[in-house]
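Posted in: Protein Modeling Q&A

I'm a second-year student putting together a small comparison for a lab meeting, and my supervisor asked me to include a predicted structure for Clp R domain-containing protein. I've never done this before, so apologies if this is the wrong subforum. The sequence is pasted below exactly as I got it from our records. If anyone can share the structure token output, I'd also love a short note on what stands out.
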Amino acid sequence: MIATDTHELLDAATRLEDPAEGLAAVCDLRRHLDQLQTVHVENALRAGWSWSQVAETLGVSRQAAHRRYARLVRERLDEVRDSRQGNSNLVVTGAARLTMHLARQEAGALRRQEVGTEHVLLGLLRVEAGPGAAALRAANVDLASARTVVAELHAEDESEHRFSRDPLPPSKQCRAALERSVHEAARRGCDRLKPEHLLVAILRDPGSGAVRALARLGVDAEAVVTGL
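Accepted answer (user: helix_wrangler)
Welcome! Here is the predicted structure, written out as tokens:
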């Protein structure tokens, strides 16, 4: 089951009957844990931790922590600044970029090969500020519950999932939603693409992972959109 995928990897890594299977599981698990460790370091620094605090938690020197993670984290932090969309006049806000960045974190933590609209939903809940997150809170959608139902949806997906490249690409469905978000911003007369435009876009597709996740929580996606 996908929801217990990491547990299954750990189980395979500790079984001694088949060295080939065990080694493959150890390598896959190590890659996944290395990826997660980088994410946790990034989130700690984003939350205001010092490099000394990070190093102490990792049990290494400050210099070692900085040497291993500084460039990676700097690149990721730079990703979430305001930036212009291609050659257009539309500016993608830092909050919108952060939403997508956090969505990639959520997909990676679940060992998915692509970022789906359900992961964007989780990213929106993590950003917290703004009309989008407020609309979700008004519908009694919280991050913990949303993560649970997303994991359930993945558990029912029998397609193969394994370690993939970083950053994870958006799924076809998610790419379509991103395109809709640009049109949504324009429709509202905005020259800045914000998280709430992403929320409307992922909820416009009745078959999207985000809509299915909300349905599991007993939430009408259209009602959330109306609230915006």
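A couple of things worth pointing out for your meeting: The chain has two domains: 1-78, 80-228. The chain has twelve helices and three strands.
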